[in-house]
Design a protein that fits this description.
HD-GYP domain-containing protein; HD_GYP_dom; single chain; 40% helix; five-stranded antiparallel beta sheet; Molybdopterin biosynthesis moea protein, domain 2; HD/PDEase_dom; three-stranded mixed beta sheet; 12 helices; globular
């Protein structure tokens, strides 16, 4: 399979990886043949990329670090919890929601089990979801990314659990913000911006009232918009004044936000997102944590369609953990624009191909 932009998809092509609704259920399943109507519907729902079947890349299968079943359960749990808080805001005033903490501990335990068994896999977030599902899928992605960093740092089981639960629920305060504010495509007023920013404190207040959620987990909600140089909010904390869990969540939050489609912009490619993060190291983010994060994220994920500086176009067939910016490419189109008769692969890590570089993701 290969991942392509929605503008390159043609009727008759077949979906290679399912697309999900906001609650984790399938919108369009693997094996469905696309029609003009389906394609227009996907565009309307905010899907800008998808995986399609292709005879030249049928053996290229991107791996996610967690199982589809784990992801679906996690998204469904986040969806039910957050929509309850949106529809019934009085719930947040209760001292504690029954089994709230235990529920999310169980969810992250499944995520952690998957992560622990696949430490050698560079993170490639392969899930595709509708725009309205961003808040719920984003929370799960942030938990996965944060969990990868926690494992790389050698956190013990309790530390992993506190980090993971905090990461799953770091944005729970957004349930108290009017949806028209956080999904608006136009610029917010100063007053509206302050209202959105208050979600960090609202999230902290919701989480710290739960008996089975550690206070350090609640700090992920409070501090994930703090910045390493003190330019963040709500308290303008700097450096190690920010809890390490929140510093990890901040990196994961920004990365997944960048690679996701938002109402006000298109998604970034993983390579552009990682470039942004690295440029912001030691100003917005803890540079040492950022280095760990970037060592475990695929800059050019398997199945990505890319263009080389020669003009050749191909699909990433394999990533190299020793040089994440030099993957193996299966060439599908030559520099003159003609399709290849028989696809062939070039390993950008090999000396003979050192003059070749990836110039953009298609």
């Amino acid at each position: 399979m290969r991942k392509v932009h929605i503008t390159s998809v043609k009727p008759g092509e077949v979906v290679a990886k399912s697309i999900f609704l906001e609650n984790g259920n399938v919108l369009l399943g693997q094996g469905v043949e696309l029609t003009d109507r389906y394609i227009q519907r996907l565009v309307h729902l905010g899907i800008d990329t998808l995986f399609i079947q292709d005879k030249h890349t049928e053996d290229i299968i991107p791996e996610d670090v967690i199982r589809d079943e784990t992801r679906k359960e996690a998204v469904d749990t986040v969806f039910k919890t957050m929509t309850t808080l949106v529809d019934q805001p009085q719930v947040k005033r209760r001292t504690s929601m029954t089994d709230f903490g235990h529920t999310f501990q169980n969810v992250f335990r499944e995520i952690m089990n998957d992560l622990s068994g696949r430490r050698d896999v560079l993170v490639n977030l392969t899930n595709l979801h509708v725009l309205d599902g961003y808040l719920f899928h984003h929370s799960v992605n942030v938990a996965v990314l944060a969990g990868v960093v926690g494992l790389a740092k050698g956190y013990n089981q309790q530390q992993m659990m506190d980090l993971g639960v905090g990461a799953l629920l770091f944005d729970i305060g957004m349930t108290q913000v009017p949806k028209e504010l956080w999904s608006r495509q136009t610029t917010l007023s100063d007053e509206e911006r302050q209202r959105v920013r208050y979600h960090t404190e609202e999230g902290f207040n919701i989480l710290r009232s739960q008996h089975n959620i550690a206070l350090v987990s609640a700090h992920c909600a409070l501090q994930h918009h703090e910045r390493f140089d003190g330019s963040g909010y709500p308290r303008e904390l700097a450096g190690e004044q920010i809890h390490e869990y929140a510093r990890i969540v901040a990196i994961a939050d920004v990365y997944d936000a960048l690679v996701s489609t938002r109402p006000f912009r298109k998604s970034f490619s993983p390579s552009d997102a990682t470039e942004f993060l690295f440029a912001a190291g030691n100003s917005y983010f803890d540079l040492e944590l950022l280095k760990i994060f970037l060592q475990h994220v695929a800059i050019y994920p398997v199945a990505s369609t890319v263009q080389l500086n020669t003009g050749q176009i191909g699909v990433v067939s394999q990533v190299n953990p020793l040089a994440v910016n030099r993957p193996t490419i299966r060439i599908l189109q030559e520099m003159d624009g003609s399709p290849v008769t028989t696809p062939y692969e070039i390993d950008l890590y090999e000396k003979e191909w050192m003059s070749l570089t990836i110039v953009r993701t298609l």
